[in-house]
Amino acid sequence: MIELGCEHSLYAFDAALEPALEVESGTTVRLRTKDCFSNQLRAADATLDALDWDRINPATGPVFVKGAQPGGALKAVIERIELDGDVVVATGEGEGVMGDRFTGWSFSHGRVEDDGLTVFDGCRLPLNPMIGVIGVAPSGDPVNCGTPGAHGGNMDCKDIREGTTLYLPVAVEGALFGCGDMHACMGDGEVGVSGAEAPGHATITLTALPALRIQNPVIETATHVGTIASADTLDAAADRAVHDMLDLVCARAQVAPEEAAMLFSLQGDVRVCQMVDPQRTVRFMMPKQALAQYGFEPLP
C-alpha cells in the first residue's frame, strides 16, 4: 500500500496539475484527507470570521494511474474509511435548502464514539462513513472541488462508502484522481449544506479500465448498480441518471429498452445525493437481483 498525505491538496480537478503520486494500475493507496473546511474549524475556540473560504472542499491528490486513458474509465474500490474522532457540522445564510431562514453562519462540533456520532450536546446518531468529493480531472477548464459533474467531484453520494466500487469516466491520461470531504454521516440531499465533516484516511484501489465506456459515474454496492448524474436542476440530473442506466443495462443485458423501462418503474429508485451545490446530483439505483435475471454483465 502507498500513502499520500493531505499536504498534497487540490482545490480544483485540473488536467494541468502535476501528479502528487504516480501508481501502477491496481495499486491500493491510502490518502490522508482534510475535512471540507481544510480543518480550519477543528479548535474549540475556532470562529467563522477567520475562515479562509478559498480553502474549501480540498481533495488529496492528484494520483496519476498508469494505463488510464481518455475515453476509458477508472475503477475506484473503496476499501476502508477511517475517520478522526471530531466532526464539524455547519449551516448558513443563503446556503443549502433553508439558507433563506438564517442571517449568518452557525456550526457545531461532534464526536465519533464507538459505533455512533454524538452531536448537539447529546444527540446520538448512527454512523455512515462516506466520501463526499471523489473524482478525476476533466479535459477542459478546471472544476472546483465544490462542484460535481461527469468527472465526479462533490457528488456527496452517501453510497460512496466502504465496499462500494465507483467507476469514473477518464478524460486525461492518468486520470489524475483525488478525494476528500469525508463525512461520519449525511442524509440524502445534504439539505443544510454540511454533513458531519471529518478528516481521516481513505484506502482505495485504483484500476485503469481503458476499454470501459461510460459518460458519467457508475457505482456498484453489494446489492445495487447505480448511475450518478449532475445537472443544473434535480429534474435534469434525474433524467440523465435514468437514461444512463437505460444505456448501461441495454448494452450489458439481454433486454429490450421498453422492457427495461418497465423494469425500472418496478424496481428502480431515484435518490437525491445532494441539492445544495452549484450542480445538483442524483443517483438511480437498480437491484442486482433484478438485473441478473436478464443476464446483466457485471462491470469489470
From TrEMBL:
Superkingdom of origin organism: Bacteria
InterPro entries: FmdA_AmdA (IPR004304)
Gene3D superfamilies to which the protein is assigned, alphabetical: 2.40.10.120, Acetamidase/Formamidase-like domains
GO molecular function: hydrolase activity, acting on carbon-nitrogen (but not peptide) bonds, in linear amides
Protein name: Acetamidase
Organism: Berryella wangjianweii
